[in-house]
Design goal:
The protein contains 14 helices and twelve strands. The protein is of the alpha/beta class. Bound molecules: nicotinamide-adenine-dinucleotide (NAD).
């Protein structure tokens, strides 16, 4: 999907073949073993990856995923998307991504610590606050980042908080980082409501995924006055046409670790949830949820892509024929996370920490700017919002490569 999207933009920008290859393929792709001792004393060897897509604009930046399906191709695609996302929002970063093929639900906290430390140790020669900055992704969290930062700092001989973002606040994490992606999604939906003439205070919202992005987006959208009528997680979905009581749902979730079983709603299957009539649909779980099979049947007015890659290229072609649906593409919609990660890195490098209000104000400033640029380009060049966002992202990387030139 990432390659296909890039090729399409490269055609549109009429990039010569050599330049396409220069920009498309990762600068560095590392595959390595991550051996650890399990709690039962046996040694187990996991596969680890890190892909640095390009280094033309600054250090590479991207999360580390712990998931059974992690493989080099997926990591490379995610690194590429990070490049366009960072470029689009004007951050001084190239994209990166990493991961370990493992199932974190089957590992103890001690085993996860050993994997995290070993992963960081294997990368010591390839990462630094100036070359490649780590962050959390699926299956990893602030504790993982604390372990990785500690391991890397041990090699430096001094604390190096700038090696990772998404750390606990007490270790140099930024205020607002945890909420940044979800709040960014809600902010952009509010902007899009203005663009499309939708009254957000009367809007209904359906959200797939009730994790970090989905649950925070739900709360933030409710603050704008929207009514959340359906949510789901990996175990199932909930629907209440009158609107879900989010405070009660949060309590239920805290007790049961799932939205399923919440009494004040009817159950709904995940595939049905995506097709509910609503004003705002937020896929905030997995990739490839909106496909050729369901894109023609969506009944939303704004599709806000909280997840990475939720819409397949085939589905995207269908959505382009449906101008009644306004798409906020993933590289713009969920960019709030990397923007506040950038703020965390800046705060770490300066040892000067900002208030949450300062973080959010700056975040909305950057997202608002990117949104306006993408809308303007989409309108002026008569291309879709996704194409406009991709063109915006790719162009800056092309320009950086051209200006820096090829050595020797
Ligand atoms: P998370 O693990 O906190 O939450 C994921 C949610 O999706 C969980 O509620 C899970 O139960 C649900 N889910 C899993 N499989 C599902 C299925 N088949 N049907 C419905 N729900 C399902 O992850 P997150 O951090 O919220 O990330 C969600 C998406 O957003 C991912 O695509 C991620 O790459 C993307 N993203 C996250 C951030 C961030 O800052 N967290 C930033 C940018 C993009």
């Amino acid at each position: 999907m990432a390659s296909q999207q890039f090729d399409e933009v490269a055609d549109y920008l009429q990039l010569p073949q050599a330049e396409r290859d220069w920009i498309k393929y990762p600068k560095r792709a590392l595959a390595f073993t991550v051996p650890i001792r399990r709690d039962n004393g046996e040694i187990e060897v996991f596969s680890g990856y890190r892909v640095q897509h390009h280094l033309a604009l600054g250090p590479a930046k991207g999360g580390v995923r712990f998931h059974p399906e992690v493989e080099l191709g997926e990591v490379a695609a995610l690194a590429m998307w990070m490049s366009w996302k960072c470029s689009l929002t004007g951050l001084p970063y190239g994209g990166a991504k990493g991961g370990v093929t493992c199932d974190p639900t089957q590992l103890s906290a001690r085993e996860l610590e050993r994997i995290s430390r070993r992963y960081a140790q294997e990368l010591v020669a390839f990462i630094s606050p100036e070359t490649d900055v780590l962050g959390p992704d699926m299956g990893t969290n602030d504790q993982t980042m604390a372990w990785m930062m500690d391991t890397y700092s041990g090699y430096c001989g001094h604390p190096a908080p700038g090696i990772a973002t998404g750390k606990p606040v007490s270790l140099g994490g930024s205020l607002g980082r945890r909420e940044s992606t979800g709040r960014g999604v809600a902010y952009l939906v509010n902007q899009a409501s203005g663009t499309t003439g939708l009254d957000i205070t009367r809007a209904t919202v359906v959200i797939q995924g009730f994790g970090n992005v989905g649950s925070v987006a739900a709360l933030a959208l409710a603050k704008y006055g929207a009514k959340i009528v359906a949510v789901s997680d990996v175990y199932g979905g909930l629907y209440n046409a009158q609107g879900l009581n989010l405070a009660a749902l949060e309590k239920h979730f805290a007790q049961h670790n799932t939205v399923v079983g919440f009494p004040e709603a009817e159950p709904i299957a995940n595939d049905q949830l995506l097709l509910l009539p609503c004003d705002i649909l937020v896929p905030a779980a997995l990739a490839r949820q909106i496909t050729a099979a369901n894109a023609g049947k969506l009944q939303c007015r704004i599709l806000a892509e909280g997840a990475n890659g939720p819409t397949t290229p085939e589905a995207d072609a269908i959505l382009r024929q449906r101008p009644e649906i306004f798409v906020i593409p993933d590289i713009l919609c969920n960019a709030g996370g990397v923007v506040v990660s950038y703020f965390e890195w800046v705060q770490n490098l300066q040892s000067l920490y900002w208030s949450e209000t300062e973080v959010m104000d700056r975040l909305f400033g950057i997202l608002g700017n990117a949104y306006t640029q993408v809308c303007d380009r989409s309108r002026q060049e008569k291309i879709s919002m996704r194409q406009a966002a991709m063109v915006q992202g790719v162009k800056r990387v092309v320009e950086a490569h051209r200006l820096r030139g090829l050595f020797p």
